Amino acid sequence: MMFACGLYGILLILCIGQCMGQVLQFPDSFDGAVGESIVFAPDNPPPTSSAFWLIRWIFGDQPVFTSTPAETNIPPAYTDRVTVDTTTHALMLMNLTFSDTGTYELSVQTDKIYTGQTSLLVYEKVTDTSLTGPGELLIERKSIANITCEGNGNITSVQWIKDNNPLNPSVSIIFSSDNRSVSINPVFRSDSGEYQCTLRNPVSSETKKLNLIVNYGPENVLIEGPNEAGLGSLVSLSCFATSLPSASFTWKFNGTDTSVTTEKFTIEKTNLTNSGDYVCTARNHVTNQNVDSQSHILEVKDNGGDGGGGLTTGAIVGIVIGVLVAVAGICGLIVYLTKTKTIPKVSLGKNKPTNEAPPRRQEHELNYAEISHERKSRGEGVIPRNMNESMTEYAQIMHGASAKPQAPPPPYESQESKPSSLPEGVTYAQVMKRS
Ligand SMILES: *[C@@H]1O[C@H](CO)[C@@H](O)[C@H](O)[C@H]1NC(C)=O
Ligand SMILES: *[C@@H]1O[C@H](CO)[C@@H](O)[C@H](O)[C@H]1NC(C)=O
Ligand SMILES: *[C@@H]1O[C@H](CO)[C@@H](O)[C@H](O)[C@H]1NC(C)=O
Ligand SMILES: *[C@@H]1O[C@H](CO)[C@@H](O)[C@H](O)[C@H]1NC(C)=O
Ligand SMILES: *[C@@H]1O[C@H](CO)[C@@H](O)[C@H](O)[C@H]1NC(C)=O
Ligand SMILES: *[C@@H]1O[C@H](CO)[C@@H](O)[C@H](O)[C@H]1NC(C)=O
């Protein structure tokens, strides 16, 4: 008895040394596709140096491949679809079916025993994916859009993308429990765009795209154009509207339909009967909405010809430029005259310090106009006397009602530049001499 026990003990120890053996490492599981192949290869194959006694692959508890130095056995179910690599003992399984899903185990016996196991999941690839949108045209705030993504095969995930961003659920965007369809209720214009659904499983994926268009409007219908126009000018009023699809337009004048059906209402040459009230109506034939603009008043003005009077922007620009040119011209003239000292500096008091004595004699720069009060009774112009005096220039000055004689103004006296003899009843004005 003691001997027997001792022998069993030795055998047990030997067996533990060999039976516990070496562990062959595999990935935990493999994903295979129906009809395709899979290779179960150990990460750490047994050394090829030692001769093997037995190589065995089993699926569940069914043998798949058994090989001894004497013979190799493959059951009929695996004939023609199984091969085993002679050095790594990797199993290649072809023409996969769903029933190949399960656990696979490899054992190799040399002077040691090597074992390892893994599992296989077989998926049918995703095929025939379709993305179906609503059949009818969508109208903002009124329509519901159901989009459904369907496909064949083992589908393990559904992913939705809109305009290259993930589509997220919201108050109006609701996903079905299996994520295969999305209901947008109601649709808004911002829901327009490219939708994309991807059906996936570990061995395949398919993506389909769908464009959704949400129609809306017309909104913000307005007329742009002048409110005034010169008689005979070209006038164009434009109607604008926010609308999808683009709106079509009609125009009313003073409440009556016109034949104009374009975005622009053009009057080639205005006449006075074109004055009045213009309204454009924008129509969206999908939303079936008609929206009127506010009324636009046009007044055609008779400005005695060519429609001037600041009616068009061109005319305004012209006038402004004209005024600027005139002002510039006057400024230039003043500067020129000042520089050439034709205007006596003394008269520009603040340009000269007060303690500096004014030029004593400026007679050569001063001229006097002799103002005669010898008016003709009918108010005609008066020709001054002594017109032919070479150094004297005369200005014709209209005098008020009174013909009373007036004294010459004091500054002339203080400058001692007064002509020696002044006729009674004559007013003098200081006049610039030209040269
Ligand atoms: C295995 O698949 C190949 C193509 O990959 C095919 O030609 C062959 O007929 C299939 N064999 C079986 C038994 O299904
Ligand atoms: C959209 O889907 C919901 C449920 O998913 C359904 O009740 C509704 O009738 C569908 N609407 C259309 C327009 O298909
Ligand atoms: C794929 O679907 C089939 C039925 O269509 C099922 O038998 C099989 O187990 C599925 N495979 C996986 C990995 O879920
Ligand atoms: C549906 O998709 C969301 C993410 O978009 C995900 O969190 C959820 O688990 C999915 N549900 C199903 C049943 O696939
Ligand atoms: C004024 O112009 C309109 C077109 O804009 C034209 O139909 C009409 O006959 C013109 N009236 C006169 C009086 O010329
Ligand atoms: C259009 O209406 C305006 C007033 O709104 C009126 O002055 C003008 O005479 C009308 N023109 C025509 C052609 O009816």
TrEMBL record:
Membrane-spanning parts = 315-337
Per UniProt, what is one Pfam family of this protein? Answer: I-set
Taking every annotated instance into account, which residue ranges of this chain make up the domain Ig-like?
124-211, 218-298
Give start-end of the signal peptide: 1-21
Residue span of region Disordered: 346-435
Taxonomy, superkingdom: Eukaryota
Residue spans making up a coiled coil are none
Keywords assigned by UniProt? Disulfide bond, Glycoprotein, Immunoglobulin domain, Membrane, Signal, Transmembrane, Transmembrane helix
Q: Where is the composition biased (Basic and acidic residues)?
A: 358-379
Q: Which PANTHER family match?
A: CARCINOEMBRYONIC ANTIGEN-RELATED CELL ADHESION MOLECULE 20-LIKE-RELATED (PTHR44337:SF16), CARCINOEMBRYONIC ANTIGEN-RELATED CELL ADHESION MOLECULE 8 (PTHR44337)
Q: What is this protein called?
A: Ig-like domain-containing protein
Source organism of the structure: Triplophysa rosa
